[in-house]
Design a protein that fits this description.
- By secondary structure, the chain is α/β, with parallel strands linked by helices.
- 41% of the residues lie in helices and 22% in strands.
- The protein is built from 7 helices and 7 strands.
- A 7-stranded mixed beta sheet has the order 3-2-1-4-5-6-7, covered by helices on one side.
- Strand 2, helix 2 and strand 3 form a beta-alpha-beta unit.
- The longest helix has 30 residues.
- The radius of gyration is 16 Å and the shape is globular.
- Bound molecules: glycinamide ribonucleotide.
Amino acid sequence: MKNLVIFASGSGSNAENIIRYFAQKPEFCIKKIYCNVPDAYVLERAKKYGVPAQVFNREEFRNPEKILHHLQEEATDFIILAGFLWLMPPCITAAYPYRIINIHPALLPAYGGKGMYGHHVHEAVIAAREQESGITIHYVNEHYDEGAIIFQAKCPVLPADTPDDLAARIHELEYRYFPEIIEKTILNTEEEV
Ligand code: GAR
């Protein structure tokens, strides 16, 4: 059994898609949703699927010993960041090397870094008149969006696209690939150990 937890800050449509995908896979368990925004919609989604949720604030995240303790108690094997907007503290990245996976809504290393999340990314891509964008699934280290890249997929940026249009196209790629890449990455990691 592989235990996964998800960190999310917002709507949580990726979190829901991951929960649904792994519900069909008895060898994986989504143990908990961790969330830093008390009224984030992802908490409703967690409730709907009966996944336990834990909300934490900035102070608890700055001194993450308690969170780390919970992760260890849950026998967490992998941490999935699905629209989680704070930088992971070094003590968590150190405890889970190559076991924290993030999705970013652009083709890293472009359009990454602090402040580059959600619609900010799509606005920047459109402002730069890029002809393509996409998704990057990568390991998480102690720097924003700099961990080794696991997978990328591209989509066109059309001349009339608004940031919402592009976000919708990117979300489709995320739903199609993220759960499957998480699964493959975990299985590959276990083979190597
Ligand atoms: C997703 O598009 C994800 O790639 C992005 O936030 C969105 C969350 O949507 N993540 C980042 O921008 C991280 N830098 P969701 O809450 O509906 O899954």
